[in-house]
Amino acid sequence: MxxxxxxxxxxxxxxxxxxxxxxxxxxxxxxxxxxxxxxxILLLRVAEKCALKPGKVRVPxxxxxxGKGIPDIMEFDEKDPDLVLKDTRxxxxxxxxxxxxxxxxxxxxxxxxxxxxxxxxxFIYPCSPDETYGVEDARxxxxxxxxxxxxxxxxxxxxxxxxxxxxxxxDFKKCGIIFHPENKDVSIFPEKVGGKYMALHRPNNSGFGKxxxxxxxxxxxxxxGNHKCIVRPRNMSHESMKIGGGSAPIKTDDGWLSIYHAxxxxxxxxxxxxxxxxxxxxxxxKRATVPLFxxxxxxxxxxxxxxxxxxxxxxxxxxxxxxxxxxxDETTCLAVSSVKEIxxxx
Length: 346
Fold this sequence. Notes:
Shape: globular
Helix content: under 10%
Mean pLDDT: 97
Low-confidence stretches: none
């Protein structure tokens, strides 16, 4: 169904300049994607940790001043009795949590969709306390001469989804939180239906079921309502834990095509296709019974978090669908197919 790019991974952590002295880039993955003028733009999730220092535990943090975020390092003595090493993801000091890594969004640019140059500085980064633990996993959609970028933000109040806008991928405007905690995997449709904006989203489920894909509507992209759960995990190994949406749905003659991710047995991620009704997008027309894409190659099965393929960005060029995906929560990769082939497989 998809042909992997021979140059995979097309972006590695070593291709990205750290955002601050003492930081090390350990992941450049899960990119949002869009066509912009004659380029393909990726918004990479760049994950950074602190360089090691003997006898010390060091974690990346942001300090906030006048609406800006300043990257910094918190340093603790490894024998300090107030320090608790929770796991590889972070530490607790005097009752306060700190993560071992922190993420921001970085622009990468390409004229051919394969060879990318990564900007030297962050694009969207933590600037306020509700982004204390990072900015992650962007999706991009172009509507009415504006590029809308939604992404996950993380803080002590958990994770949720925020929105920013840009017209040039040099400057941006933050619009605030659009889906409250705990909600992520938001994919906005590229046009209105029935005079309303639409989105797929994924609220957490800590009650009687598993995290599923929901539908919502908005008059202005900021205020969302008419929520409906439209796709739930099935009783199969690929979807045994949860599912969530990918990039902006693609409009076809047959309906809205979306490629979503599924987390299954042993925390293994795979990608499935689904077709939604053109005029009533909360209605499922078709849903793949087998994955479109699974982790198979070494860079997908081994890495920072192995057996993960995760897409939140694609573009169409020369009638081919370029699907950009994060591999093992570490690198950015590319696989190519076509909308027609995917629809035929559903």
